[in-house]
Design goal:
The N and C termini lie far apart (about 70 Å). By secondary structure, this protein is of the alpha/beta class. The longest helix is centred in the N-terminal third of the chain and has 24 residues. It folds into two domains: about 130 residues, 3-Layer(aba) Sandwich (D-Maltodextrin-Binding Protein, domain 2); about 90 residues, D-Maltodextrin-Binding Protein, domain 2. Strands 13-12-14-11-15 form a five-stranded mixed beta sheet, sandwiched between helices. Strands 7-3-8 form a three-stranded parallel beta sheet.
């Protein structure tokens, strides 16, 4: 009788331990909960060309969207993209979405809430100014009214500029429009979108390389649920395969 009771208690303890282990890793039975239903729900902010924007068909398009679709094919799952505000992407992971891809920079602050894939792109912030502006250095930005997209690296940079007024926008293009209309002295945005905006308004704005201002290179990666190692390994493996088979370079050539 005593042996039987001890056996039952040991079995119960083992079961509890196994359940606790599953909960902590964000996986079930060695599989990612994010992939279990065969659908990868992806959050993005389609206001960041050429990485993400709304295509002619009204759906999100761009380098990031093409990349995550290619990752989905490697994983054998259907990809569903949800377009939302950039500042809501991190908090949506694990509830509304499985992952997020949106030209998102890897930062220590974001790492407290989510895990990141291996970086897939290096970027640096650029400064957009009116065509006749005299701004040419970091010191020239002091005391100026500067626009950025809410929650981006540009937002964090402006906070550190002495006397600068940080004007936040949900869409980078809205900041650029205010720059053109004389309501801003400058806009801080990533290099590739800066090139796109300058190409669209070549006579109205100039694109200044962020290295001139001392801005550091940053890395984009896919944001994922905290602790889901199975998902992280699967996505990293897919990205590496896409780089090895030439798909990644083809997407760079097409979009960037």
């Amino acid at each position: 009788m005593k042996k039987r009771i001890i056996g039952i208690l040991l079995t119960a303890a083992l079961s509890i331990s196994m359940l606790a282990g599953c909960g902590a890793s964000g996986t079930t039975g060695g599989e990612s909960e994010a992939l279990a239903d065969g659908v990868l729900t992806v959050g993005t902010n389609a206001e960041f060309p050429p990485f993400e924007y709304v295509g002619d068909d009204g759906e999100p398009d761009g380098f990031d969207i093409a990349l995550i679709n290619a990752v989905g094919e490697k994983l054998g799952v259907k990809v569903e993209v949800e377009n939302m505000e950039f500042d809501s992407l991190v908090s949506s992971i694990g509830s509304k979405t499985d992952v997020a891809i949106a030209g998102m920079t890897v930062t220590d602050e974001r790492k407290q809430s989510v895990d990141f894939s291996e970086p897939y792109f290096d970027a640096v912030q650029h400064v957009l100014v009116p065509a006749d502006s005299t701004i040419a250095s970091y010191e020239d930005l002091e005391g100026k009214t500067i626009g950025c997209q809410l929650g981006t690296t540009g937002d964090f940079i402006i906070e550190e500029i002495e006397g600068a007024s940080d004007q936040q926008y949900n869409k980078a293009v809205d900041a650029v429009n205010d720059l053109i209309n004389g309501r801003l002295d400058a806009v801080i945005v990533d290099s590739n979108p800066a090139e796109v905006f300058t190409a669209n308004y070549p006579d109205k704005i100039r694109d200044l390389d962020g290295e001139t201002f001392g801005f550091e290179t940053e890395q984009y990666a896919i944001a994922m649920p905290k602790g889901d190692k199975v998902l992280a390994e699967a996505i990293n493996k897919a990205i590496n395969e896409l780089k090895a088979d030439g798909t990644f370079d083809a997407l760079v050539k097409k979009y960037l």
